[in-house]
């Protein structure tokens, strides 16, 4: 296993890519309303990335081994869709929860971040899931420091999510990120403290827990990308890209419109 440590120069570029990815979410947020089609959100984000930011939408035609090329510029995962939902004609309606996942490339480096959006007033259970998943991500981020282990991040997230009565999706994880979209290491959202790779300054990776209101099991749809909960329960996800610094961590995907972190 080889983890790519970023130089000072790389880190500067990762900061730019990270902020730009977050700013796509700031840009699209006012459009995430009842009646808008997910394909329209994709079209708007694509245009903003390509024309305004001059970034490259990393998902478009992304084809990891064993996958068809991904057909859109963002992922839109609604309600029981866990991740990698493909934008299309489906319109958002009051009560939906939706994850928008943005990855841009700028100057050769990737920034990857996602947020949940509530359409109208989702059920109390849905809002609890969205908020708990946000807190789970932040608890994971706060475990990032030199000398900590990847298992510390995973166990922190798992413990919190399960304490809230929710379950962690096992098949997808956070990932190293840099010149490549998905690099080593894999950042599991479950595990045991003190196990796994030891963190050192210069590592950059995502933390992106997928948390289900019901059981943890998933299924993939015939489109080759969309992942749904096997029991059709709601699923939520938030994602940030983080850097391990000399004395802790830096979140690279913050922007003016990013929601406040939860109280520590
Ligand atoms: N952005 C997703 C992640 O967080 C990956 C999406 S791959 C795609 O890792 F091809 F579906 F876009
Ligand atoms: Co990611
Ligand atoms: Co992502």
Structure keywords:
single chain; 264 residues; alpha+beta; Creatine Amidinohydrolase; 4-stranded antiparallel sheet; 3-stranded antiparallel sheet; 4 helices; 15 strands; 27% helix; 25% strand; binds 2-amino-4-trifluoromethylsulfanyl-butyric acid; binds cobalt (II) ion
Description:
Strands 1, 2, 4 and 5 form a four-stranded antiparallel β-sheet that branches. This protein has a three-stranded antiparallel β-sheet with strand order 3-12-11, with no helix packed on it. It has a three-stranded antiparallel β-sheet with strand order 6-10-13, covered by helices on one side. The protein has one domain (8-249): Alpha-Beta Complex (Creatine Amidinohydrolase). It has helices spanning 8-28, 38-53, 124-142, 150-163; strands at residues 56-57, 75-78, 81-83, 97-106, 109-118, 167-168, 174-176, 183-187, 204-207, 210-212, 218-220, 227-229, 235-237, 240-245, 248-251. It has 264 residues and is α+β, with helices and mostly antiparallel strands. Strand 7 and strand 8 (183-187) form a beta hairpin. The mean pLDDT is 98. Bound molecules: 2-amino-4-trifluoromethylsulfanyl-butyric acid and cobalt (II) ion (CO) (2 copies). One cobalt (II) ion binds at residues 112, 175, 206, 208, 239.
CATH superfamily: Creatinase/methionine aminopeptidase superfamily
Number of helices, where a helix is a run of at least 4 consecutive DSSP H or I residues:
4
Order of helices and strands: HHEEEEEHHEEEEEEEEEE
Level-2 CATH architecture: Alpha-Beta Complex
- Give the distinct bound molecules: 2-amino-4-trifluoromethylsulfanyl-butyric acid, cobalt (II) ion
Overall mean pLDDT score? 98
Quaternary state of the chains: single chain
Biggest sheet record: 4 strands, antiparallel
**Spatial separation of the terminal alpha carbons:** 33 Å
% residues in beta strands = 15-25%
Which bin fits the share of residues in helices?
25-40%
- Total domain modules: 1
Number of DSSP-assigned strands: 15
Q: What is the level 1 CATH name?
A: Alpha Beta
State the CATH topology.
Creatine Amidinohydrolase
- Please mark out the parts with pLDDT under 50 across 5 or more consecutive residues, or reply none: none
Gyration radius (Cα, Å) is 17 Å
Overall shape: it is: globular
The computed structural class is alpha+beta
């Amino acid at each position: 296993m080889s983890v790519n440590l970023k130089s000072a120069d790389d880190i500067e570029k990762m900061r730019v890519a990270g902020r730009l990815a977050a700013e796509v979410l700031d840009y699209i947020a006012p459009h995430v309303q009842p009646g808008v089609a997910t394909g329209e959100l994709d079209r708007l984000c694509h245009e903003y990335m390509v024309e305004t930011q001059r970034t490259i939408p990393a998902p478009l035609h992304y084809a990891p081994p064993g996958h068809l090329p991904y057909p859109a510029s963002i992922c839109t995962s609604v309600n029981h869709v866990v991740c990698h939902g493909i934008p299309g004609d489906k319109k958002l309606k009051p009560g939906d929860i939706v994850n928008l996942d943005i990855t841009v490339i700028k100057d050769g480096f990737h920034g990857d971040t996602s947020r949940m959006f509530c359409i109208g007033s989702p059920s109390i259970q849905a809002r609890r899931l969205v908020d708990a998943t946000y807190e789970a991500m932040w608890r994971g981020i706060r475990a990032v420091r030199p000398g900590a282990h990847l298992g510390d991040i995973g166990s922190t997230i798992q413990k919190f999510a399960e304490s809230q009565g929710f379950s962690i999706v096992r098949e997808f994880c956070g990932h190293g990120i840099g010149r490549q979209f998905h690099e080593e290491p894999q950042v599991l959202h479950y595990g045991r403290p003190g196990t796994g790779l030891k963190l050192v300054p210069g590592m950059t990776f995502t933390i992106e827990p997928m948390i289900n209101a019901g059981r943890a099991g998933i299924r993939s749809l015939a489109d080759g990308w969309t992942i749904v909960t096997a029991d059709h329960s709601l699923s939520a996800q938030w994602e940030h890209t983080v850097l391990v610094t000399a004395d802790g961590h830096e979140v690279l995907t913050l922007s003016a419109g990013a929601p406040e972190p939860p109280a520590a």
